[in-house]
Amino acid sequence: MxxxxxxIFLHLIVFLILITSYVYAEDKVFVCKPTIAGLQLDxxxxxxxxxxxxxxxxxxxxxxxxxxxxxxxxxFYKNNKNRSFEQLIPYKSFLSIxxxxxxxxxxSKAIKIFQKWDKALDLPALTKDFETYIxxxxxxxxxxxxxxxxxxxxxxxxNLMTSEITVPMxxxxxxxxxxxxxxxxxxxxxx
Length: 191
Known about the structure:
Helix content is about 30%, strand content about 35%.
């Protein structure tokens, strides 16, 4: 009986692996490493690090490598190896969502910060080369309180780059910017 169960179990696992690989066969998978990062200081000035130009990059060194799965209909994002892939919301769709006034105030605050970063970086908010998405990010802190952030992620699949602006909503962490260079990967290489 145990042999029969084990035999069926192994076949089921092989079948699930084949189905999963087939589902993702058409998808583009990217692993994106931080190369430039910055944050706004209390003085109002901006601090930046560039992996290629700076000898020391303590801020970049703390950042995680992100992963994306792109398919014809959706984009999935994984912020670090401890999270699952989560679907991103297209920026244009996000702006048209009908929200309660409290949530709208938070979104308006985040959009103003995105615009400040666009100006500081001398980048247009949305360009034809970048597809832009929103990611609502939450995680448990050590004291079991939830920390919430809104990320605006722009993805350039032609040049394999991403640009992320993160606005923490429930912590005193300042908003920050990260540019990442990506490389094609496959599901075997993902953590």
